[in-house]
Amino acid sequence: MRHTVLAVCFALCSLLANGCSKGISRATAATVLSVKGRVVFGDAERNNFQSVTLKSRIHNGDTVRSSDGALVDLALIPGALAGLSGDSEIKIEELKITKDGNETAGGMRDRTARIRLNRGKIIVLFSPSDNSASQFTIKAREITIKPDSDCLFCVRTEGTTTRVTCAKGNINASAGPQAPVTTAAGYFQQWPKNRTEAVPAADDAAAQIDITESLEAGEQLQDQASGWPNHRPF
Predict the structure, then answer these.
(1) Which of 179, 183, 191, 233 is least surrounded by Cβ atoms within 10 Å, i.e. has the fewest?
(2) pLDDT digits (tens, 9 = 90+) for 146-158
């Protein structure tokens, strides 16, 4: 009898341990921190759009379009905030969180955000606040951009040209199968490439503007996120 009781206890403990260790993943949605001017979101393939408001929840597969002079600030996942400029378009490819299977603990294990910049300009403030893994990726044409640390950066794509400018921290960017190249604060890269290394923003008027606008937008994003009572729908 004693051996039977021990075996049952061992089995229960194993089940509980497995339940606690198993992560549960689910899709989440971006929250609108602020919006100015005409901004819409929805299914681009069906041309089914609606106006972005402070109550909008923007999900996987949605496309966000801003008209000329408009602005929209989004909380994508905890620690990843983005400001979309006027006459720009992004597609939300994936927003996902993975939590600990133990509902009482509610621990966050992993956060993932993947978006595509189809045209225009976006400024991103990436600053994970805890020890859980946060994965963030922006694609612009053939370029893939990933933060290397807490950072603030700008991505702009116009015509056949894509520019990545880093205002704080470091970012990694690669074109197709090429190895990623790190861009540090105060530098930029542009594709198609005419240089193999990152270029100081001080050498380029447009990059200087990107740095200035990124620093201003970063402060605004941080202020909006901290003052938003329900900005963490995660």
Answers:
(1) 179
(2) 987 799 999 999 9
